[in-house]
Please model this.
Amino acid sequence: MNARSRTTAAPIAMLLWEIFAQRRAAFVGLSAVFAAGLAISTCSCFSPGPHPMVGGFLTVTGVLLIPLIYALFNFTHLDKKTGQAGFPIRLFTLPVSTRTLITLPMLAGVAAVAGFYTLWSLVVLHPLGVKFMIGWPVLVLSVTMMCYQTTLWSLAALRTARLIALALGGTTLAMIAIIPPLVPEFSHMGSLRNGSLVMIAISIGAYLTALLAVDRQRHAGGHGAGLRRLIDRARELIPARNAPFASADGAQLWYEMRFAMFLPIATLLIVLVVWLTSFFFGPLSAGLTLYTLGIFCLVPIVLGGIIGKGIWSPDKDLPTLTLIRPISDGDLIFTKGKAAALAGALAWLVLLILTPAWLYTTCDASTIASTYQKLDQIPYIPAWSLIGAALAYCMLITWKALLKPAPLALWNRPIVLGAATAFTMLAVLTVIIILTNEPRLFLKLGRRLVPYLPAIMLLLDVVFVLKISLAYTLANRLTHRGIISHEHIGTYFVIWIVATLFTTLLAFIASFAISAPGVPSLYVATIATLLALNSFPLVRLLLAPELFSNSRHR
Model:
């Protein structure tokens, strides 16, 4: 090896060691979990009979470990002066090209996530009879890793925009990854080849974006690198409001909608991307059309749970501008709730406007039309009323998802809020993976719970009574301390009662369409009704004003 090769190899080795050394304990733990999973799978294969529970357990474990790999390759460094977490600036002094600086972490991340998924599927799960696709998920996971790192490095100076980009991109790519298991014809009509070309194009775009962004940061001396100036110029092109606000609540609502509008905008972008992709793939089949329509319905709900954090706490700390405004804690919380409701309604309005045009131009809507005809045959209930009720329920669930982060965000504990958000996302992802691959696990669990149904119903009754009692106590304390007015308390109680009654009625009607072998229909209807009674937030929204008041005056 000549002197020049040694000079180049030393920084490359240092960069690889930097990736490992930051989280060496987590890497060792990941290797230990993989070894444990391999041992459990090997021992189970030597014992007679099928092992669905072991396969399901290892499937969920693998799903939970994949987000951990992405976290391990969060190759960023927090700049304490600016509060920005982007590409480590200290590495800009290494005598290597910018191309090398970003290529090595990207290749390491892609190799780690692709290698783990392949080995876990083939070595751990396949001997137990649990079979997953290899090529398509590996491609999607690899592209996701590249987009993930590109977003972290390119949007370091824009924390809110980075959060939205991660939520939007992660949700879209996760939904794309599970298309083949749910829609088998996707692999037989050339769409898999076209989809692979799209994924490769996205990966090339992500790599070039990261290269340009990091190179500009390297030569401009920081993560901003002119990006904020460009965004400020773009904002100047948007017409600003010149008329005075009628009240302080109106001004605060205008301010809160800056963050809440990310939800309808993100929904619009996802629908447009799917629409353009549909043109590229050609007319979508009936099965793929139905699947994509279901995904559209989940988009506002899933994004609402992520974007809701930005509504309640747009920055790491409570903004000084919010703390000093002449508006009470209760008025501020009530205004944030109105902004969340308006954002959720606008997101669904986007879907209602664009989805029919998407169905008409690029889809085979025969399955959807036949489903509508079957609904229209139900006596005494028009099909349009059922669809309207389902849409109203979806809007309520979207609003609930936006309200969910309120207490933790206003408590001003970013670590706790991040952990709770990650746990929720992992739980939802686990349920989706199990439903798409091992739905029998839920059926077996339900059958085992049949003897305990009376106790479960009693527990749900107790939870509902405690919920009402705690809400009444909190309402009295908040009004006594002057944190929130009686008018706001009464308004939200009316909204909660209407939403709960509507949800309970829907759950009671839908329970009779659910057939559970060995379970009396009365039990199913009762449990569905009790779950609906406890589904809409009450205590959570009453905790928010008190937590915010404590953080505001601390």
Observations:
- The chain has 23 helices and two strands.
- The beta strands are 77-79, 84-86.
- The two ends are 62 Å apart (CA to CA).
